Request: fold
Amino acid sequence: MGDERQKSNRNHERKEYYMHLDTLGWNSFFQQQLESQDMTGFEVGRVAAENRTNYLIYSRYSELSGEVTGKLLFTSSSAELPKVGDWVVMSVFEDERKAIIHRILERKSRFSRKVAGKKTEEQVIAANIDLVFIVQGLDGNYNPRRLERYLVMACKSAAEPVIVLNKSDLCDDTAGRIAEVMGLTGDIPVFTVSAKTGYGIDALKNCICTGTTVAFIGSSGVGKSTIINTLLGKDIQRTGEVRESDSRGRHITARRELFIMPDGGLLIDTPGMRELQLWNAGDGIEETFADIESLAGECHFKDCTHTVETKCAVLEAVEEGTVPRSRYENYIKLRRELNFLETRQSTSSFLEKKRQDKILHKRIKQMNKTLYRRKFE
Reply:
């Protein structure tokens, strides 16, 4: 009964907005793509949720249940298939509230990570986002090194990162932690909030205009869903308590989903991430660790690894205390992780090309055999 009431609340919130594409984030970037090709007879919509076999799509026809064409399904990698936030071109069956997705419009931004496990593949968490709210708790969850990792990925996403420090009501040294975070993030905005008491929520609201899409990123238990519920003014997302021993929470949010605020902003909730592996994040590392990267240009050796070399400006700064040792160690760790990923990607690309060449040569050989037989028939 509770789930039905929750679903009813969602439908009530959404009805006002689906008829206006601008409210869903439509802009000239996507309009130009649409106009560059003949799309007569097709409609556009935005992916609000990805289910196991279909998609929830918002459009001027209200909610639609969508499926991709067989061609799109079998010629696309997982990262190339529709993700939450994507704009899709589709055929609509209005009476059935269904749609067939024919293509995905080019993404203006995306937050990605390497898939968990040994596979070297990209996992797109959210697409076409304007702001990435990196949420971290000011309780036992607080971890500057984890925050740096999230910043690297956010800076790579092409969206604007924003730091949200939640649970200020549970912190005895809020000012000290704010100062520490601001020392790491430079000009990136930092907000301190308490979703439980409502402190700071209005400041977050002021960042979100009509049509602005915000993705909430962070580990389990930091309060992403609670903040979203507060911004929406409804208990749309389930929330759970965290363990007192380590301030970690269970995975209450089971899927990524896009919600529409009463004032027109768009919020994407994501499941908590216990593993955030880098994906093509070289630019993100340079931006997040700009202080260390600038020192690297002063090293005696151009190919300095900043680990054992003499006359290394980075190591000297660490010894002098200008760069915190823990920040330096995290920088080296992320650099090594990225280098390892690039090696894996090169190997994977080589093996895939070798597989494709083998298939091609086999087909050519079969075709030549067929032509040879026909010649003597």
Notes: The radius of gyration is 24 Å.
